[in-house]
């Protein structure tokens, strides 16, 4: 079984093009020893490389390529398997697109193929190759500056904390994390994240309950979230709370309870967003949809959390449209380096734009992730890059500034 990896990248401006032949010659020797073959296309500024060979050897070479300081904005487009090599003559053959006429360059690349079957563009890898040769990927390919371009400056004015707080709900606590618009230097919302009294995770908190008691505890805890938000001085700021989807269905008069607690704490329904995750099975979909209608009729907004992580995301969008979706952090992680993740984000943005649904990127931890997501049109972010959750308080926010 052969592994295939495709990537594209950008040659740094300070690297002389004339050094490429020497680079290819050295790479050929290493690749041949590892039984790795392929082709390297160059258009004067960008590389497109196809690597083929044994899995560990191909991955090892690709890992070294990722560390090469001569190029940047490296994006892995495909990682797949094949029965035979497409380009098997040498370890890495350099193909300079500038040396060929546009009308014949595609065939010239195909002629380098060594497969016993005629290479055609029905092959997925060669579809990528054709897109690069014809420069048709520009509308979806975003290049970002190095992370060192930015520094993140802490804004202590956003910090607030309650040292002690008494409430009738004593078995849980909340940590607050902001959702931010970095370029506007604006906090768009605070999310209340449930914790154990010692700061443990939501999973630890709900593990103490069994059966339907989990859902009752989930609803009751929101009384504390609203009260804490008021004490911290949330004012007219948006507050986001998380609910297990079945809490709305299982707990009698759940929506009425939430509205009562919102009013009791001097908040208004229009500033509350209820987040539900798509990865919990909604076994009573019709009842859930009915409760969602009650929320929206009262003025409370709805968000789908961890979008893309579960099995029901698109199905839920077809049944009811939330006011916003939060893209799951597994998709966000290293999105600037992953072609498949980038394609998924593009699709989510296009879908949500058609439905007028706001998009939030959560779990952002790297400046490169933020820059790429900002470039494709996302303006709201949540993650450690900007602020960590603050136990019983609002955390310090770090805003990006150009060095």
How much of the sequence lies in strands comes to 25-35%
Low-confidence stretches: none
Q: Describe the global form.
A: elongated
**DSSP helix fraction:** 25-40%
Q: Quickly count the domains.
A: 2
Mean pLDDT: 90
Radius of gyration: 26 Å
CATH fold label of the largest domain:
TIM Barrel
Give the second-level CATH assignment, the architecture of the largest domain.
Answer: Alpha-Beta Barrel
Query: How many angstroms does the end-to-end distance come to?
Result: 48 Å
Looking at this structure, what is the CATH superfamily of the largest domain? EAL domain
CATH class of the largest domain: Alpha Beta
Structure summarized in a few sentences:
The protein has 403 residues and is an alpha/beta fold. Helix content is 33%, strand content 26%.
Question: Which features does this protein show?
Answer:
single chain, 403 residues, alpha/beta, TIM Barrel, 2 domains, five-stranded mixed sheet, 33% helix
Chart the SSEs and their pairings.
Layout: E1 2-11, H1 20-33, E2 37-42, E3 46-53, H2 55-66, E4 71-82, E5 93-96, H3 105-110, H4 124-133, E6 150-155, E7 160-161, E8 173-181, E9 186-195, H5 202-206, H6 213-231, E10 239-242, H7 245-250, H8 254-264, E11 272-277, H9 285-298, E12 301-307, H10 313-319, E13 324-327, H11 329-332, H12 339-355, E14 358-362, H13 367-375, E15 380-382, E16 390-391, E17 393-394, E18 397-402
Parallel strand pairs: 2-5, 9-10, 10-11, 11-12, 12-13, 13-14, 14-15
Antiparallel strand pairs: 1-3, 1-4, 2-3, 6-18, 7-17, 8-9, 8-16
């Amino acid at each position: 079984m052969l592994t295939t990896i495709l990537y594209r990248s950008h040659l740094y401006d300070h690297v002389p093009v004339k050094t490429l032949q020497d680079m290819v010659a050295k790479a050929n020797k290493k690749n041949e020893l590892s039984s790795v073959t392929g082709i390297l296309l160059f258009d004067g500024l960008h590389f497109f490389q196809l690597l083929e060979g044994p899995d560990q050897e191909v991955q090892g070479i690709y890992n070294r390529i990722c560390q090469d300081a001569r190029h940047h904005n490296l994006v892995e487009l495909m990682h797949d398997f094949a029965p035979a090599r497409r380009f098997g003559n040498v370890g890495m053959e350099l193909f300079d697109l500038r040396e060929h006429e546009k009308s014949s360059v595609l065939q010239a690349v195909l002629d380098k193929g060594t497969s016993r079957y005629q290479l055609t563009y029905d092959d997925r890898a060669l579809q990528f190759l054709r897109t690069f040769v014809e420069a048709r990927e520009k509308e979806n390919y975003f290049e970002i500056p190095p992370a060192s371009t930015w520094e993140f400056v802490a804004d202590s004015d956003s910090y607030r904390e309650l040292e002690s707080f008494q409430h009738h709900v004593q078995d849980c606590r909340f940590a607050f994390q902001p959702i931010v618009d970095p370029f506007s230097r604006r906090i768009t919302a605070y999310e209340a994240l449930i914790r154990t009294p010692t700061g443990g995770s939501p999973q630890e908190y709900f593990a103490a309950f069994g059966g339907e008691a989990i859902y009752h505890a989930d609803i009751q805890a929101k009384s504390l979230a609203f009260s804490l938000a008021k004490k911290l001085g949330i004012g007219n700021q948006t507050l986001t709370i998380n609910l297990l989807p079945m809490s709305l269905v299982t707990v009698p008069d759940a929506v009425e309870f939430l509205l009562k607690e919102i009013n009791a704490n001097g908040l208004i329904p229009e500033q509350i967003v209820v987040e539900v995750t798509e990865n919990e099975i909604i076994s009573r979909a019709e009842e859930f949809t009915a409760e969602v209608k009650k929320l929206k009729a009262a003025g409370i907004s709805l968000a789908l959390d961890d979008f893309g992580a579960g099995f029901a995301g698109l199905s839920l969008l077809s049944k009811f449209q939330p006011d916003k979706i939060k893209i799951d952090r597994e998709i966000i992680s290293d999105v600037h380096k992953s072609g498949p993740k980038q394609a998924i984000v593009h699709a989510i943005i296009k879908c949500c734009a058609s439905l007028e649904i706001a998009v939030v990127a959560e779990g952002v931890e790297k400046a490169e992730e933020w820059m790429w997501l900002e470039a494709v049109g996302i303006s709201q972010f949540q993650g450690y890059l900007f602020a960590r959750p603050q136990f019983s308080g609002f955390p310090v926010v770090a805003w990006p500034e150009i060095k």
